[in-house]
What does this fold into?
Amino acid sequence: MSRFIGITALVGWLALAALAVSPDQPLMVVTEAICYSNPEFGSVGLVEFPVMINRSQLRFFRPDTTDPNYYSRVFAQAVIYGASGAAVDSNSTYFSSRVASVEEGQARNQMLFNKLALLVPPGSYSARVTVIDAVSKRTFETLIQDITVSPADSARLAIGGPTLAYQVSRADSSSPAVNERMVKNGLYVLNAPAGLFADSDTIAYLYAELYGLRRGTDSSDYFLTSVTVSDSAGSFARNLGWKVGAKPGLSAAVTQAIDIQGWSPGLYRVQLTVVDRASGDTARTALPLRVVGATTLVAPGSSLAEFDPYDSLTMKEKTDLVAYLLTPPEKATLHKLSDVGKETFLTQYWRDHDSDPTTTRIENREELVRRFQYANRRFSRFMTKNTGWATDMGRIYMTYGPWDQRQEVPTPRVGNPFTIWYYYSVKEGQTFVFEDPLGNHDYKLVHSNAKGERYDQGWAARLREEMLDIR
It folds into this structure.
């Protein structure tokens, strides 16, 4: 599939050339959030919002009678919000494309690319991305949740900004077609938001940045990268082998071309593993790669929001997701199945437990995935960030969702640190107390007034004595 690179152009508003698009139909835009916790940024992290637009949706115009070309004009904006819901910062841009005729503008296999970027302190955020065809006024808007900017840590190996792309090549700053917003580390990177590719594409590129590399001796002053691809059913696997990378400094950019020619439409998982030979550190990350029919890529109204986050989970993550939902007989049955059988079992389970069968989405599953991913990020004790769901805090969070109020007691009069979660909206109000018995942030549930949970009279009396609102 050929794609057109959007470049900025400032033009006047004269003779409009209307294309065959409905003004009531929303724009098709694909976007996502990509985070970079680069130690060189200091106390802030970088969040990028790449956008991809099907050019045939746009309305083109001629600026004046002396210019034979037609132009489109697009406005894009990203507003990022903090945990409290207040706006933290925003960024916006205009960009355009040029065609020689109205018919050329209607070609349905051309895409426009651009990107917005913001620097924010470490923390949890959400963002609203808006894209407007400035000529027809057609609009796209989406809210991206659960954006986590981690603190930069130069003391260990880390992977930043992993993304899939349609093109990664050496940037030619002298070319008028180069959009500087798409240049990173001297490379021209055309992001594929949401890892979305058409079945007519032949190459998918992986791009990522490495931080916290260590200088070593001549025999160890290099790093290794490995890329593997698989599908969720376990019936497809590609191992692209190990590559040796030279260290230009304490950070580096890595790329990998993946031959996807002839791949069947579906969801694939791309995993990058990096080993620093000097320090012995290992880091891993995984990305979804979605292959769809070419008509889906140009379908009006398509957006990242329509992609189910469940599709990006591995088979193990899908089984972990339902750990607190299945009955013992169901768990035993699931455990005995092959990966293909597990996929079929879970598909039927969620079909039977869809909270709103009148929609094409399984909203309760999407909410559970968000809780699952938050629990892994927040409560995992290891760098792999995949065990938080199995902790006491993870179980309660996945079962009840975000707390209404949290009270931390790091230095009680007696005993160990503990934390209290209040759920005022659940039945008559429920409370969960977690204690850190070893001082290693591995909190255990020690008391709750929720039915079926552990109730400890000693803790209840102790908390009343400390004048805390809990019974």
Observations:
- Residues 1-22, 298-305 have pLDDT under 50 and may be disordered.
- The longest helix spans residues 363-379.
